[in-house]
């Protein structure tokens, strides 16, 4: 069965209406962004790292498979570009709005949950030793001398 289109809903014709209908959704997004900024500013839990823990923290240091700068491009900009192409083809501002709103919700909820867990747990990365001591010999306050 062919799809029926009763008319196009463009940004110009329905954009303000959609924005007014969903103003509280956008306010919640701003609140989530503020929570994430706050979580990045607070002091995280500090964990004691003893000599016996070092065996669990000596995984080899690997280069990132995706560069840090590319993550927002893959996670946000590329999907938004796809949504815009879809909007240009369909001329439905409701689909565009809900797609962008859903994307931003998913990204911000992920950031808030991840940062909250990082702050609460404070566990070092598995390659903690090699990040701190690239030469393989570490001297610290909590252990005298650790060799690789």
Explain how this protein is built:
There is one protein chain. The chain is mainly alpha-helical and 148 residues long. It has one domain. The chain contains five helices and two strands; from the N terminus they run αααααββ. It has helices spanning 11-21, 23-41, 71-90, 93-121, 128-132, and strands at 137-138, 146-147. It has a two-stranded antiparallel ribbon with strand order 1-2. Strand 1 (137-138) and strand 2 form a beta hairpin. Helix 2 (23-41) packs parallel to helix 4 (93-121) and helix 3 packs antiparallel against helix 4 (93-121). It starts with 10 loop residues before the first helix and ends with a strand.
How many domains make up the coordinates?
1
- Which term fits the overall shape? elongated
Number of strand segments: 2
Strand content: under 5%
Largest sheet: 2 strands, antiparallel
> Which residues form runs of ≥5 with pLDDT under 50?
1-6, 141-148
Structural class: mainly alpha
**Biggest sheet, spatial arrangement of strands:** 1-2
Secondary-structure element series:
HHHHHEE
Number of helices: 5
**Helix residue percentage:** 55-70%
Radius of gyration (Å): 23 Å
Mean pLDDT: 80
Question: For the terminal residues, how far apart are their CA atoms?
Answer: 67 Å
InterPro entries: PAP-like, PAP2/HPO_sf
Transmembrane segments: 26-45, 66-88, 100-117
GO molecular function, one term: phosphatidate phosphatase activity
GO biological process, one term: phospholipid dephosphorylation
